[in-house]
Automatic annotation (TrEMBL):
Catalytic activity: L-aspartate + 2-oxoglutarate = oxaloacetate + L-glutamate
Assigned GO CC terms: mitochondrion
A GO molecular function held by the record: pyridoxal phosphate binding
Species name: Papaver nudicaule
Name under which the protein is recorded: Aspartate aminotransferase
EC identifiers of the protein: 2.6.1.1
């Protein structure tokens, strides 16, 4: 079969048609040359210069950058106290036994598939997470006034909540404690909220500036959002007492301030899951509305699985249902739906009585080891006669201690003792061990006595 000739509309054998076909080919060649010329002129098409040549090198994250510097240090005595992750007495990452058991159960279940989860995540995980933080007997749960969606750990939960507030809440200002976890600021600013601060930490007492906190929240505009650390405040390790929490609750409700709890350390602070959740439950029990972002990174050691949940407590089940519908519209274009493995581990542990009990035992052991590190460091500094009152180390709670060391002292300790921490003097107590406490105490003593 002969190849089909292009239709020219006339007999191509006539002189006129031949000239017409030549003209058509010429126009086509010219067009192609023009296209090729445009392509070669495109800034993305070859050449030595990058279209991103103007991009400047971004600074390292102030927290994650500590680990980068630590990894580059060849010293055998180096110590990383910047990472916000639990370490064993041997300085190794820990996978909980109960997590390994849950994973084995999941692996052995041949009915499990890798299909997409719904936009809101694993339903069983969401229900169990709400019970864990609000209490199984919470009236808000019984009345279906809570909507819970699975998110990408604590950061993702905060971001989804921030995006929802930016779209649907009348007051775009959020008050966060001074100081707070550095990522809080970026998360809420990028969600379109205006970030302001309320006083929290008193450098003189190395404790809570309770009066300053009350004054700043009293002057906040009605309806403003207030970020609250549920327990084990990061970076200071300073928490209000339950009596102070009650004062905060009354003040916030009187001014219609909207509480947004960040719960990254439930059970990890005191060793009690219920005890660490009391501040949140106080706010829920009065019938008011609030937000709560949960993370299972610390208390179940699931850092890399990115397992978290955002719960919004509403006035009625009808409102909660509508809120959930809008949360889906936030999540869908952001990451579509969350992963399945991590929340399946959590759900497996939370729904099984024996596994749950085993988890609480392991969780308390982690919390107790950190409390022991606090006591050992305090006693080591006292034994050395280190100038100053270091009792704040044992008064503070949770993974971190705000030492009170300044930038110059921190730099000195890194330079002379190869100890790495954030420049604000925050150290991770989980990064310490009985073996390394003397080295840290020596470094702090030298920094305080030599650097003032």
């Amino acid at each position: 079969m002969r190849p089909q000739q292009p239709f020219t509309g006339a007999d191509s054998s006539s002189p006129t048609d031949r000239r017409l076909n030549t003209l058509i080919r010429h126009i086509g060649d010219t067009t192609m040359e023009s296209r090729n010329s445009n392509i070669s002129m495109s800034p993305t098409a070859g050449g030595d210069a990058s279209v991103f040549a103007h991009i400047v090198q971004a600074p390292e994250d102030p927290i994650l950058g500590v680990t980068v510097a630590y990894n580059k240090d060849p010293s055998p005595i180096k110590l990383n106290l910047g990472v916000g992750a639990y370490r064993t007495e041997e300085g190794k990452p820990l996978v909980l036994n109960v997590v390994r058991k849950a994973e084995q159960i999941l692996v052995n279940d041949r009915s499990r598939v890798k299909e997409y989860l719904p936009i809101t995540g694993l339903g069983e995980f969401n229900k169990l997470s709400a019970k864990l933080i609000f209490g199984a007997e919470s009236p808000a749960i019984r009345e279906n006034r809570i909507t819970t969606v699975q998110c990408l750990s604590g950061t993702g939960s905060l971001r989804v909540g921030g995006e929802f507030l930016g779209r649907h809440y009348h007051e775009r200002t959020i008050y966060i404690p001074q100081p707070t976890w550095g990522n809080h600021i970026k998360v809420f600013q990028l969600a379109g909220l205006s970030v302001k601060y309320y006083r929290y930490y008193d450098p003189k007492t190395k404790g809570l500036d309770f009066q300053g906190l009350l004054e700043d929240l009293s002057s906040a505009p009605s309806g403003a959002v207030v970020l609250l650390h549920a327990c084990a405040h990061n970076p200071t390790g300073v928490d209000p007492t339950l009596e102070q929490w009650e004062h905060i609750r009354k003040l916030m409700r009187s001014k219609a301030l909207l509480p947004f709890f960040d719960s990254a350390y439930q059970g990890f602070a005191s060793g009690s899951l219920d005890g660490d959740a009391k501040p949140i439950r106080m706010f829920v029990s009065d019938g008011g509305e609030c937000f709560a972002a949960q993370s299972y990174a610390k208390n179940m050691g699931l850092y890399g699985e990115r397992v978290g949940a955002l719960s919004i407590v509403c006035k009625s089940s009808d409102v909660a249902s509508r809120v959930e519908s809008q949360l889906k519209l936030v999540i869908r274009p952001m990451y579509s739906n969350p992963p399945v493995h991590g929340p399946s581990i959590v759900a497996t542990v939370l729904k099984d009585r024996e596994l749950y009990h085993e988890w609480t035992v392991e969780l308390k052991a982690m919390a107790d080891r950190i409390i022991s590190m606090r006591q050992q460091l305090f006693e080591a500094l006292r034994a050395r006669g280190t100038p100053g009152d270091w009792s704040h180390i044992i008064k503070q709670i949770g993974m971190f201690t705000f030492t009170g060391l300044n930038k110059e002292q921190v730099a000195f300790m890194t330079r002379e003792f190869h100890i790495y921490m954030t420049s604000d003097g925050r150290i991770s107590m989980a990064g310490l061990s009985s073996r390394t406490v003397p080295h840290l105490a020596d470094a702090i003593h030298a920094a305080v006595t030599r650097m003032g």
